[in-house]
Amino acid sequence: MQPRGATHLAEDTAALLVPFRSGKREWHIKMLRILSYLILVGFGVVIGVVATFHMTRYLGAQNMFNPLGKPLAFPQAQLSCKMTRDRSGLEQWIKPSELMHNMSDSELLWRASLAPRRKGYPFHRVPKVAFMFLTKGPLPLIALWEKFFHGYEGMYSIYVHTLPSFKLNVTSRSPFYGRQIPSQVVRWGDSNMVDAERRLLANALLDFSNERFVLLSETCIPVFNFSTVYAYLVQSYHSFVHSFDDPSQYGRGRYNRNMAPDITLRQWRKGSQWFEVNRKLAVKIISDTKYYPIFQTHCRPSCYVDEHYIPTLVNMQLGSFNSNRSITWVDWSRGGSHPAMFGKEDITEEFLRKIRNARHCMHNSQKSSICFLFARKFSPSALNVLLQMSSKVLEFN
Fold it and tell me: Hey, what CATH topology would domain 96-328 get?
């Protein structure tokens, strides 16, 4: 048994500790309350900062578009006009309003290589023939071509590639008015000749209604009327690229072994520069980034890119869709590096009829008496005689 004094001492000590423990518990509670308050305040500050940042960006954007601070209003009429303009945007996509543009060749070729994968067209499409004239300057036989095109608007397109410094001088009533494209200097025998051909094709491809593409020079003439030419081309299953294996020094002899293995001697072809292709083949030609650089590097005089590149490419890529013949008549019988030129003294009814019925050929897997639609080379002096015979012999309407 403890002494009475010790018992009282223990009781007194316990009594003193009760308020101390109670005070410590209250202190902990107060601290928890303070911490909770601080957390809530901090969370509120963060939300405020974030909200202020986003409001500043929003108001800054409003001030940028409305610097005077006036209320922004969007009347229904304005919205309606904007929607109308957006809907009409398809027109610019399927047919440029102007031929002149600021695109570089690489930009142009990229743009023209875009081809829709969806079948059909979301607009009324009349297939057109694109007539592409590659010339240094004037078109001395333009009057004959104007008569050829007359009355067939909407069924053809015209593209003219000249020297950059030359401006075609025609009246606004001419189908050649405003039909020059952005051009660059072209030299005979140089690869920039093919650059010009691809430039013509690319500009013509920007019009989605163009289905057939024919390359012509300033010395070319049509030897049939427009309706015959149009039906012959638009209804054709094949393109008309002169492509053949020439075993001579002017054919295989121009092949450079450094082109292998991408281009072999067995694939090497030669042909006329003056081609006619359908839209699928035109896209293939301007989209090529593999073979054309090889020709630019390894096909140099006495190898001429314009005589070998497209014939070889077509043979390699789409040979089964090609007729392997040209529809542009030319006379090489006089020899030399250039074909014969015909002036007014050469033009007779018999001469023109021989071109129109030169020989039998195949068209859509059937024999045809029409093999050539165009002919070259004709000098400016032949114009008047050709105009006189255009109705009787060429059957222009």
Answer: Spore Coat Polysaccharide Biosynthesis Protein SpsA; Chain A (3.90.550)
